[in-house]
Amino acid sequence: MKATPLSNCERRFLLRAIEERKRLDGRQCYDYRNVRVSFGADYGCCIVELGRTRVLAQVSCELVPPKPNRPTEGILFFNLELSPMAAPGFEPGRQSELLVKLNRLIERCLRNSKCIDTESLCVVAGEKVWQIRLDLHLLNHDGNIIDAASIAGIVALCHFRRPDVSVQGEEVTVYTPEERDPVPLSIHHMPICVSFAFFQQGTYLLVDPSEREECVMDGLLVIAMNKHREICTIQSSGGIMLVKDQVLRCSKITAVKVAEITELIQKALENDQKVRRKEGGKFGFAESIPNQKITAFKMESAAVDTNNVEEQAEEIITKADPPSEVFAKPILHTPGTAQIGEGIENSWGDLEESEREEAAEEEGESEATGFECQKMEIEDISMTKETKKDEPIVLSDSEEEEVVILEPQELPKKTRTQTNSKQENTSKKAFNKSRKKKRAAH
């Protein structure tokens, strides 16, 4: 998915605002966005927020054989990933030109500046050294990725602790954090990148450009410097030609910004160490988020008074209404059914003619099915009685089903007359059919 391009109206609006020395977020030309550093639960894990641009940094280490041409130096590996989660214009698994340029710039800033003492990473010369791996993940893209990535990288390296190691002869022992305290990396200085955006062939200059400002800029100048005002690397991109005075002015601005950011990083590291040394101290990403934004992770404890619980319970029981002693009795309409209480009256009003006809048909069907069920029960009962008395049963000689002549059981007065008449008719018809079939067979 490609990034959404700027419209001509928006482009003209941004350029006109820059000419008037105004920015969309209210900053001045040389103002930097707010930098916020938060550390994870493990050493070497941090998130750096530069405005809305967020970068996650994670440092890991392992023992590996050294390079043949440098047997007494450790190995440094840097990797920056631009995921589609940060911006829709980034495609997964594809090395874009922007990603290659950013990775090379980070390597020059951190590796070529010799900010880390690689010789201190050697365990056994020519056999085992520490490989330090720095992974940077862009979580949200709002412009100036390289500055946020460089700050996150150096903060994670300063915060990282590798396991302690002891060598006895040819045996190498790696201690866990419980056995021995981890050892920090030997860092000489902290290089930090500062980006400058140029507009209208270098006429206007902005520090820390945002994503919209990067879309309309003509060129970009990145200067990596430490607090000692030593330039570690410098890179210019875009189709602009810069004069010496512009570069010197940018370097002076960089020195001021780097000093402020370095002081902020040192304070953040000191505060994290104090919290970790303190017993019961709270640290990590979840603790750094205010309670107003997240209520599922943290909840303030509420005091519960457990005194006089029995007395309060007795008061509640005495004030409660006693249970009613009147219970509804079951109403037996017919054997096998029961009802408790009275039914709810119909709230739909009188039925229409069509509904009345349907109700009458359903009642007729239910009565017919009821008579048939009673008839079958009577036949079964009479069969059992006749077989017990060893009375003769009339069977037909045909291959059809057997015809059994039964006498109905004595029923209550209401249904006796109806069932008797129907039973006699069915028995006569069955007897006549059996006689006709016998004559036809003979």
TrEMBL record:
Gene3D superfamilies: GHMP Kinase, N-terminal domain (3.30.230.70). GO terms for cellular component: cytoplasmic exosome (RNase complex); nuclear exosome (RNase complex); nucleolus. One of its GO terms (molecular function) is mRNA 3'-UTR AU-rich region binding. GO terms for biological process: exonucleolytic trimming to generate mature 3'-end of 5.8S rRNA from tricistronic rRNA transcript (SSU-rRNA, 5.8S rRNA, LSU-rRNA); nuclear mRNA surveillance; nuclear polyadenylation-dependent rRNA catabolic process; rRNA catabolic process; TRAMP-dependent tRNA surveillance pathway; U1 snRNA 3'-end processing; U4 snRNA 3'-end processing; U5 snRNA 3'-end processing. Residues 32-163, 189-253 form the Exoribonuclease phosphorolytic domain. Residues 337-442 are annotated as: Disordered. Keywords: Cytoplasm, Exosome, Nucleus, RNA-binding, rRNA processing. InterPro entries: ExoRNase_PH_dom1, ExoRNase_PH_dom2, ExoRNase_PH_dom2_sf, Exosome_comp_Rrp42_subfam, PNPase/RNase_PH_dom_sf, Ribosomal_Su5_D2-typ_SF, Rrp45. It is found in: Cytoplasm; Nucleus, Nucleolus. Residues 350-366 have a biased composition (Acidic residues). Residues 430-442 have a biased composition (Basic residues). Signal peptide: none annotated. Its main location: cytoplasm. Residues 374-392 have a biased composition (Basic and acidic residues). Belongs to the RNase PH family. PANTHER family: EXOSOME COMPLEX COMPONENT RRP45, EXOSOME COMPLEX EXONUCLEASE RIBOSOMAL RNA PROCESSING PROTEIN. This is Exosome complex component RRP45. It comes from Cochlearius cochlearius. The gene is Exosc9.
